[in-house]
Amino acid sequence: MPTCKELCGNLSSRTLRWVVTGGAGFIGSHLVESLLSLGQKVTVLDNFLSGRESNVEEARKLSTGRDPSFRLLKGDIRDMEQCREACHGADIVLHHAALVSVPRSFQEPHLNNSCNITGFLNMLTAARDEGVRSFVYASSAAVYGHQPEGPTGEDAPLSPLSPYAVAKRTDELYASVLSGGMRTTGLRYMNVFGPRQDPSSPYSGVISIWSRCLMDGEPPVIYGDGKTTRDFVYVGDVVQANLLAALSDLRSGDDENIFNIGTGRPVSLEKAFLAMSGAIESLCPGWKGKEPVHEPERMGDIRYSLADISRARELLGYEPRYSLEEGLVLTIKSFMNSRM
Ligand SMILES: NC(=O)c1ccc[n+]([C@@H]2O[C@H](COP(=O)([O-])OP(=O)(O)OC[C@H]3O[C@@H](n4cnc5c(N)ncnc54)[C@H](O)[C@@H]3O)[C@@H](O)[C@H]2O)c1
Which one of 26, 131, 185, 262 has the lowest number of neighbouring Cβ atoms within 10 Å? Predict the structure, then answer.
């Protein structure tokens, strides 16, 4: 099985056309950056619901000329015409646009439904009808709901506990019946972290929220007793998973085209906090941060979350490369730079 390095090496001799929806967001902007650095042509479709202009500032410098390397379509996946326009002539779609907040999916279930189900369906069918070869989409570990302690494989019972999770599961089911021969791959991300993650996101961005608190001299909040575990995966590994999924020779319409993307390493919130303080100290010797405060667990919080990544290892050749500590240093460095 070719490694990510080999697949990316092959890309230097062939330029493919990629669409990244949600490319102005956290994960999407890292995908865009990596693809452009590999000499690929990239179109972003984003309505800036949570995405930021600054995330695509560098890429926009490449949007000149008749057939530019980068195209930004400010548009909405809820609009079928805009989805078609984005997919026209494309080889590969990496679908990442979504309303990402779980609390907001409870407050605004119709918005969740229109972006995360109808928008998904629009992109899936537009890509299929425009002859796209490979459609990779962001699903989520949220589809599992509460799980016992220990690694969760893709075949574990599913129990979506929020409108957001219901939408992600619905998307997987639509992809399995509507691909029409186009290869589709769903990536169930665990807790992704890294540079450019928005610290205002109340659910998935605990590391970015803590970074902001610690830098601002505020005590970070740990909900619960700190023993809650997460599988924190650095965004660089998520980029790797997308490239492997997009370029690997998976069979189309296969039931097994859904993969957990994490590290397979459980980290308690307590430990993550200590690792984070250690990372800041290594960058700013003598730094003394505030101790965390504990607050009661929030409704719907999941106690344990840990991916079994053997399927991704076996069928995609995915291997997480970043330790939590390395990822934290890169994240905090970037956070500090953004504030200078
Ligand atoms: N960050 C995580 O830990 C995590 C975990 C599991 C799954 N995911 C999934 O990964 C994907 C990317 O998440 P992220 O963390 O980068 O979030 P993000 O909020 O930074 O990015 C989402 C992007 O989608 C855009 N968008 C939203 N609605 C849109 C619409 N209707 N039309 C066009 N663009 C729209 C936003 O403006 C934003 O740029 C999402 O599908 C999310 O559900 C993320």
Answer: 131
Do the bridges between strand 41-46 and strand 17-21 make them parallel or antiparallel, or are there none, so unpaired?
Answer: parallel
For ligand 1, atom 9: residue with the closest CA: 138
- Give the distance (Å) from ligand 1 centre to CA of residue 48: 10
CB 122 within 8 A of CB 175: no
Residues 6+ apart with CB under 8 A from 56: 23, 24, 29, 32, 44, 46, 72
Which of 44, 48, 49, 99 to mutate to test ligand 1, by most ligand atoms within 8 A of the CB atom?
49
How far away, in angstroms, is 94 Cα from ligand 1 center?
12
Q: Which residues line ligand 1 (CB under 6 A)?
A: 22, 24-28, 45-51, 76-78, 96-100, 115, 119, 138, 140, 189, 191-192, 198, 204
3-state secondary structure of 204: coil
Q: How far apart are CA 249 and CA 35, in angstroms?
A: 19
pLDDT in tens, the chain (340 residues): 778 888 888 887 889 999 999 999 999 999 999 999 999 999 999 999 999 999 999 999 988 888 899 999 999 999 999 999 999 999 999 999 999 988 899 999 999 999 999 999 999 999 999 999 999 999 999 999 999 889 999 999 999 999 999 999 999 999 999 999 899 999 999 999 999 998 876 655 889 999 888 888 889 999 999 999 999 999 999 999 999 999 987 655 556 699 999 999 999 999 999 999 999 999 988 888 888 999 998 777 789 999 999 999 999 999 999 999 999 999 999 988 887 7
Is residue 189 part of the annotated active site? The answer reads no
13 CA from centroid of ligand 1 (Å): 31
Q: Is the separation of the CB atoms in 123 and 96 below 8 Å?
A: no
Catalytic residue among 137, 144, 164, 322: 164
SS3 252: coil
Just give the CATH number of 4-338.
3.40.50.720
Q: How much distance in Å is there from the Cα of 23 to the middle of ligand 1?
A: 8
